[in-house]
Amino acid sequence: MADKFTPLILDALTRAAAEPAGVPLFASKTAPGLFPASTAGKPAAKKAVDDGLLEILRTESRGKAQAEICIPSKAGIQFLLAEASPKQVLEDLVRILEERRTEVRELLANAARMAVGLERLAEVVGNVLPKVEQHQYRCPAPSTNGHRDSHPIPDEAPMAELLPMPQRATIAVMEPIDDLAEVILARLADWTASEPSARDCPLPDLFRSLSVRDEPPTIGQFHDCLRALHEQRGIYLHPWTGPLYALPEPQLALLVGHEVAFYASVRNA
User: Fold this and answer.
1) Residue boundaries of the structural domains of the chain
2) Which residue from 29, 36, 53, 227 has the fewest beta carbons nearer than 10 Å?
3) CA distance 35 to 24
4) Which residues, other chains included, contact 60 with Cβ-Cβ below 8 Å and sequence gap of 6+?
5) b or e along 230-241 (b: 16 or more beta carbons within 10 Å of the residue's beta carbon)?
6) Are 201 and 264 in contact (CB under 8 A)?
7) Pairwise CA distance, residues 253 & 115, whole Å
8) Each residue's pLDDT tens digit in the chain (269 positions)?
């Protein structure tokens, strides 16, 4: 019987070894697991647990069902290395690593798009809010006949007194900065002159160099100006080439096309 279950157990141990946080013992319709919930998978899972090859970390509720979250034990790792080809184990782990790296890359790209969308939303709210505050609120007033007649609120009653509005200070209003592009170009030129062996300036360093201004730009203004300079062929935007999980200060990285830009340099340098 052990020979029959060995391939399923080895596959489960390989996938469990790649997930330090643990994996559900059984797969469901919506979530992956170490073993299929089938007539072959259930006894193989029981044998792996009974033999001490898998450790149950915790139990989680998945709807009406309970999921046992498992990791491989030391005995399980030794069993994996003894029964499987080390080369095959390494190839499987590398394949799983690449799948996770792709997932992380997609998550970071989605996060970058959301950050840009939030900056745009803040700009729209900042432009609309003053008009809303100036608008007069009208509501129906009770009449003596039991019905409600529509009467305008007097002009001297501002909307802010009738309906609580968010404080203006909490809205990231993005005012235009006319000379921001010139300052960015100057900062990049200074960087090139002071860092001859590293011509590409990291975007976090470039953004922090702008904080000394009387009116430092927001991240949204910073990104908008970089895009405009890039489209006008005033600067180069260089992509991050390392693993995305190692990207420092990802909120300052810039999504350009299908690449995550993390460095900038002037084109005429």
Assistant:
1) 2-84, 107-266
2) 29
3) 9
4) 24, 66, 67, 69
5) beeebbbbbebe
6) yes
7) 10
8) 456 888 888 888 888 887 877 889 888 877 788 898 888 889 999 998 998 999 888 888 877 778 889 988 989 888 888 877 666 666 767 777 777 677 777 777 777 778 777 777 777 777 776 666 565 444 444 555 555 444 444 444 444 443 344 443 333 333 344 588 888 998 888 888 876 666 789 999 899 888 777 778 888 888 989 999 988 888 999 998 888 778 888 888 888 877 889 999 988 64
Cα(164)–Cα(166) distance, integer angstroms: 7
pLDDT at site 237: 92
Reference 223, options 206, 239, 240; nearest CA is 206
Distance from the Cα of residue 56 to its chain's centroid: 30
Cα separation, 160 vs 262, whole angstroms = 43
* CB 67 within 8 Å of CB 74: no
Q: Do strands 23-24 and 65-72 pair parallel, antiparallel, or not at all (unpaired)?
A: antiparallel
Q: Token pair for residue 2?
A: 């052990």
- For residue 239, give the amino acid letter: P
Task: Spell out the CATH class of 2-84.
Answer: mainly alpha
